[in-house]
Design a protein that fits this description.
The protein folds into six domains: 12-111, Rossmann fold; 115-139 and 209-336, ATP-grasp fold, B domain (D-amino Acid Aminotransferase, Chain A, domain 1, 2-Layer Sandwich), CATH 3.30.470.20; 140-205, ATP-grasp fold, A domain (Dna Ligase, domain 1); 344-422, no CATH class; 455-475 and 502-558; 571-648, Beta Barrel (OB fold (Dihydrolipoamide Acetyltransferase, E2P)). 48% of the residues are buried. The protein is 28% helix and 30% strand. It is built from 19 helices and 38 strands. The chain starts with 11 loop residues before the first strand and ends with a helix.
Length: 649
């Protein structure tokens, strides 16, 4: 499926993005012999996409979180490097009409649809009206300014969605209309933060729905095809975490009908390039599907479509943007085998999936033998709260679904990102869930069963491995090939039985414990092996980090005296600490205010996600150490609420 018209391909393309998508686009540019230009913020000066591009340009102005949104800086970078086209990736400005138009005005080719199509489909309200007129079924709903009235008329449950943007940002499921006002306010804040537009719409919520999308590809010569569907029903907080192609739900007849509807939706807005038409599908009746929205860009989950069709979507984005026609028709599209993708995110399942951060100390990303990892990581990468939490994607391709599930579980077990808590272990367990294995999926499955997929405590062998690391650190280095046996920390005593050394340690977010190192442990700079109750356990290691099978633990030394003094100073249970690294966006109280148990006091935002900090009990705010805009590290003290006297009597 390769075009013969290659004379108009670009010489230089600027990639207006970062992370794994920038690296992935650069890979195809290199394969086509096209010079790549990366852009970077100060926070990304040593990022992988910067190193892999042919050249890179620093963009501003600060703060770093806004650098990639600076249209003038991006256009200047393109001009300085002689770029003829701009690939926006996804996120940031990928679906920004003004940016697409600014590129055109500057004489640059925007590798995406026309600005008019972005504008039309980026406005979910107009998009629904347009595709409805083209005969595509849509979900009942309404938008601003009738939002609140329409929500109450539809009745709970309803789904609030930003009219601009996507990716689950700002989406709120409201099952109790008594909370509608608060949910609308929160949805507006997230939408404004993520997309610069707080316009909302409301839709009827379909319980136990399936999220199925169709990949479309259109050229500037009137040719439009679809490349089959992707099942994206496994979601958490409206964010996709596992995607697969094809879907176990669709018959060939329903696939053809949905594909035809997606093609009509693309035609209705004059679409050009790669795009995705998303449908909500009742699991009990897959023939009753409803248009949700169209994403006018490359999707995060595009690799699964590439693997089952053999079509490089980024290559065809480039070829179409260069004016080439598609050299294949709908009849040429064949689906081969099964592909499944898992999104690796910087988040801590043991702390309610709060965003995490840190420095990648040890990294292993499987590749080959049907496994593909798209990543922007490298050892030494600093993962901050400035950007989206997704770090990489692990994708597998196999002859059938059961094989693909097994291969992906194995690939996640091989994935190592010590230094930054991720959801890899959680995803492995999710892929073994009975309903996932049988294909009985819906968009609420993860939320319903998430707790059962997160281990309650820390395995005993983790503490044993941590103690072994500490014991090994006490051993003296050999001198001239010989070690004094009396200097070894073996616990040996004259005339008595050995007394093993106890080590007080704690896993971040857990209570401290005191453990002893098991006999016969093997410790190196990168690995630990211990035997507990006759079972041998192997761990990856980087400093005080241990990992296996996708899970990781940061095991810290614990000083009981220091901990006691710190607890006394900050009031113990009265203390409100930052649950994640981020920025305080809302402060609702002041020192001296009386508050009720559960009352919302502050809001911390990280990676475009909000977390509400509530009062642990009724009382008085005695300390408040932050203001809106304060950047906080995880576990930093935010406020202290002293309980009412009658509650402590």
């Amino acid at each position: 499926m390769r075009s013969l018209f290659q004379h108009s391909m670009f010489d230089t393309v600027l990639v207006a993005n970062r992370g794994e998508i920038a690296v992935r686009v650069i890979r195809t540019l290199r394969a086509l012999g096209v010079r790549s230009v990366a852009v970077y913020s100060d926070a990304d000066a040593d990022a992988r996409h910067v190193r892999e591009a042919d050249t890179a340009v620093r963009i501003g102005p600060p703060p770093a979180s806004e650098s990639y949104l600076s249209v003038p800086a991006l256009l200047e970078a393109a001009a300085r490097t002689g770029a003829q086209a701009v690939h926006p990736g996804y996120g940031f400005l990928a679906e920004n009409t003004a940016f697409a138009q600014a590129c055109a005005d500057a004489g640059l080719v925007f590798i995406g649809p026309p600005a008019s199509a972005i504008s039309l489909m980026g406005d979910k309200i107009r998009a629904k009206e347009t595709v409805k007129a083209a005969g595509v079924p849509v979900v009942p709903g309404a938008a601003d300014p009738e939002l609140e009235a329409a929500a109450r008329e539809l009745g709970a449950p309803v789904l609030l969605k930003p009219s601009a943007g996507g990716g689950g940002k700002g989406m709120r499921l409201v099952r109790d209309l008594a909370t509608l006002d608060d949910e609308i306010a929160a949805a507006r804040r997230e939408a404004r933060s993520s997309f610069g537009d707080d316009t909302l719409l409301v839709e009827r919520w379909i319980d136990r729905p399936r999220h199925i999308e169709i990949q479309v590809l259109a050229d500037a010569h009137g040719n439009v095809v679809h490349l089959g569907e992707r099942e994206c029903s496994l979601q958490r907080r409206h964010q996709k975490i596992i995607e697969e192609a094809p879907s176990v739900l669709l018959t060939p007849e329903i696939r053809a009908a949905m594909g035809a509807a997606a093609v009509e939706a693309a035609r209705s807005c004059g679409y050009v390039g790669a795009g995705t038409v998303e449908f909500i599908v009742p699991g009990v009746d897959p023939s009753s599907y409803y248009f949700m929205e169209m994403n006018t860009r490359l999707q995060v989950e595009h690799p699964v479509t590439e693997l089952i069709t053999g079509v490089d979507l980024v290559e065809w984005q480039l070829r179409v943007a260069a004016g080439e026609p598609l050299d294949f028709t709908q009849d040429d599209v064949r689906l081969d085998g099964w592909a499944i993708e898992a999104r690796l995110c910087a988040e801590d399942p043991s702390r309610g999936f709060l965003p995490s951060g840190g420095t990648v100390l040890s990294l292993n990303e499987p590749q080959g033998n049907g496994v593909r990892t798209d990543s922007g990581l490298s050892e030494g990468t600093e993962v901050s709260s400035l950007y989206d939490p997704m770090l990489s994607k692990v994708i597998v391709h196999a002859k059938d679904r059961p094989t693909a599930l097994r291969k992906l579980r194995a690939a996640l077990a091989e994935t190592v990102t010590l230094g930054v808590p991720t959801n890899a272990g959680f995803l492995r367990r999710l892929l073994a869930h009975p309903d996932v294995v049988t294909g009985a999926l819906d968009t609420g499955l993860v939320e319903r069963d998430a707790e059962s997929l997160v281990p309650e405590g820390v395995p005993e062998e983790v503490y044993a491995a941590a103690a072994a690391v500490r014991l090994a650190a006490l051993a003296p280095a050999p001198k001239d090939g010989w070690t004094d046996p009396f200097s070894r920390p073996s616990g040996w005593r004259l005339g008595g039985r050995p007394s093993p050394l106890p080590f007080p340690v704690r896993v971040s977010g857990r209570e401290p414990v005191t453990v002893e190192a098991p006999a016969g442990a093997r410790v190196t700079q990168t690995a630990v092996t211990v035997t507990v109750d006759g079972l041998v356990h192997h761990f990856h290691r980087a400093g005080n980090w241990l990992g296996r099978d996708g899970d990781s633990w940061h095991v810290l030394d614990h000083d009981p005296v220091e901990a006691a003094l710190s607890g006394a100073k900050h009031g113990g249970a009265d203390t409100l600490a930052a649950p994640m690294p981020g920025t305080v966006t809302v402060v609702k109280v002041a020192v001296g205010d009386e508050v009720e148990a559960g009352q919302s006091l502050l809001v911390v935002e990280a990676m475009k996600m909000e977390h509400v900090i509530s009062a642990p009990h009724a009382g008085t705010v005695t300390e408040l150490d932050v203001t809106p805009g304060t950047t906080v590290a995880m576990d930093r003290i935010l406020a202290v609420v002293a309980p009412r006297e009658e509650d402590t009597a």
